[in-house]
Batch of 3 targets.
Target 1
Amino acid sequence: MNAKTIIMSAALTITALTTKSQGMENNPNANTSLAPVEKPVLTKEWDKVFPQSDKVEHSKVTFVNRYGITLVADMYRPKNAAVASTASSRPVKKLPALAISGPFGAVKEQSSGLYAQQLAERGFLTIAFDPSFTGESGGMPRRVASPDINVEDFSAAVDYLMNHDDVDPGKIGIIGICGWGGIAIEAAINDPRIKATVASTMYDMTRVNANGYFDSENTADQRNAKRAAMATQRTIDYKNGSYQRAGGVIDPLPEDAPQFVKDYFDYYKTPRGYHVRSGNSNDGWNTTSNLPFINFKFFEYADELANAVLIVHGDKAHSYYFGKDTFALLKGDNKQMLTVNGASHCDLYDRLDIIPMDEIAAFLAEHLDK
């Protein structure tokens, strides 16, 4: 092939690529449409760790996030909502709505579903969703956590609620439990459609991964050691063709385990909270999931969050410092810290005699009406 032929061939290739690109630009559905919602096989029976309420209607819904992952949620709708007619289930007045997730490593059949059902009894349309890569939601590989994608999951839930016929799009809030409490606040900083946020027994997952518990590993050498260990694991995972799991809640429980570890065991490893799809109940996250949390900081712009936030924490929780320190970053008279005296971290997972559900509902109702 002579030089002239090579030049002509290259020109034809460039023309073809340009034409293809222009064709995609002229067809918006070719590269800008939402990813299709998958049709996952959903569990039909009631498999929650809490009893079903006769005061709400329950159904399952699906929606897609910005990364094309299909999320699965349980919807809880108050039965006492006034409807337009006996022939219609549409409410006379559109409902305030909440998206709920957490704890970190749990599934919607556990704590988030309980919160969702309780708040539906109090007049909200609620969805408790499984995050990307977990539970019944989509995404491969399984059990991956990501500060970016998990924040997006909340906004995707808001996308869904904003477009629901029964929901007042101006009255949407979110609730995050445990590690999802920090994720919820970060989502609210980024997404002003979220009019009110509740973080219950919250963790800052970026802080605990980067600094260790109680900031006991807060040096460059310690962080670099963690990075090196996970980088090594990435090489091993790629070679093996599978991802190592970090392990869920430790089992069997050592006699000298800290009290908060015993509390986790009492929830995730007993009939109280065990669920077959929960990572915390079983073999945990993929080990390398911790890596991005080390290099990502929540709350850098916390003082810019204009909408309402309620942080609920027990004063006996090992995680109490996360709630107090995060609250100190927030500005405005629509931010509240509610301390539950005598409550441990896991008490706020499912102890309805301790969780201040009425106060949570009142806060949300007040600030979603503004």
Target 2
Amino acid sequence: MTAARNQTSAEDETQILGAIQAWVEREVRPIARQYDHADEYPHHLVTQMQELGLFGATIGAQYGGLGLSASTYARLVTIISEAWMAPTGIFNSHLIMAACVERFGTEEQKQRFLPRFATGELRGGLGLTEPNAGTDLQRIRTTARRDGGGYLIDGTKTWITNGIHGTCFALLTRTDTAADPPHKGMSMFVVEKGPGFTEGKKLEKLGYKAIDSAELVFDGFRVDADRLVGGVEGRGFQHAVGGLELGRINVAARGVGLANAALRDSVRYAQERKTFGKPIAEHQAIQLKLGDMATRCEAARLLVEAAAKKYDAGERCDMEAGMAKLFASEAAVDNSMDAMRIHGGYGYSTEFDVERYFRDAPLMCIGEGTNEIQRIIIARQLIERNPA
């Protein structure tokens, strides 16, 4: 278990959330549809996110971050995702990298990287997934072998968020290819782009547009030994799993935001659209859908809050984060489909946001560990915590 974090005051966090809400309404919501359809990276929003401190949202104040609790961070992500989910990925992947350094790095690594992460001077994400290894991280093939006072890294990562526009990544490698079980031979490095480290092609996606997902290619890339997180080999798998707790809370919060957006648009449209002489909101078939949609939103929100509270208390929360991620992502998918049906033909039109919700939602059932693996994690933890 990790120690509970020092956090900003409740009053400060309320002010921060208010500022984010105002920014969303002023800057994010008006451009979401345009940038999504053009699949255009929102450079100006990234600059604004730097100014707002979002790249340091969960980084401790002693390192220049906002020091937000996971609970407040989840609410922040929900607020943004209700308008447009994509921007949350730009800082979430970055903050998972930062959490890895803050929780497991040496003090020298914290002092070197965290202040630059907090300002967004260094931005990036988490390098885990490979062409032949996704949920099963122990099957990665990227290697880091000793070479004098450093390491030489070879391999390829894929589906890496911020892969094009990011410059720094927490990279999971194999430092002992003969280790049994394999996770004992895995190590995490903080790496910056340079000779031997290039981004490959940008990957085209159904949804989650405007944010870059790409391959990262390492060919004899040299990294100094002081970039090994924690300074000890063989702990990278634990570092990766620890970071995914925060990542799954983020994905769950996105699910809440998207489910809320689908509900909000549906409630409004159902009162405006008329059939058979009355608003469709007065038809029982529509009321049944709205009732289910609202219940999913509230249940998902409560699960996210429960997981975030355990994370803030420094308690193990892989089961709770898994529950939140599983339910909230499925709620987003179901609500997006119900919203499309309520909107009818207009729900299928690119002139309405509903079609974007429908395209964005499935990602959350896959990202940060598929929902199938979440069910397995939940079940295993349930058995471990309740021995016969």
Target 3
Amino acid sequence: MTSPYEIRVFGDPVLRTKANDVTDIDGKLAKLAQDMLVTMYDEPGIGLAAPQVGVQKRFFVYDYGDGPAALINPVISESDGEWAYEEGCLSVPGLSWEIIRPKQILITGFDLEGNEVSIEADELESRLYQHEMDHLDGILLVDRLDADTRKAAMRTVREKFLGLDPDPTAPDPARSAAKRPPKPSGGLFLP
């Protein structure tokens, strides 16, 4: 089956915009979630946020081994510890970096039936939710890097996705009218 959506990649302004709360949990949202899951599995990924397919709604889909699910208007209310892990992103395909995030979280939200959901997550599952939450807030994984690593990563990303000279004095890619980014070959994926 062909992916219903093309995943937006670095340089697309939708990835830097904070998503709006979902106000109606209805059949349209359920269909969108189903189409997003097909797109996620095609890449392959374990999570995909609505902004990654150009939809500014505050929800994401995921499959962490217990079957597919969606989390609507999620909120992380508790976090604890630190865990470093090599993290990649479907919106920055082919690249990954070690990123430190809280090891454990408590996340709440709603499922596609409108039921409140509360999940205690650890390690990779915790990272999955935090990564997708970042997309809902217009944050990309390169924003989570320390200053030196981020500088090097941005040079690589600008060159790969925007065809820009990797020179750090090059214009900001968000304002550049550079060529269109390539179709991604890779939410969150396992490197």
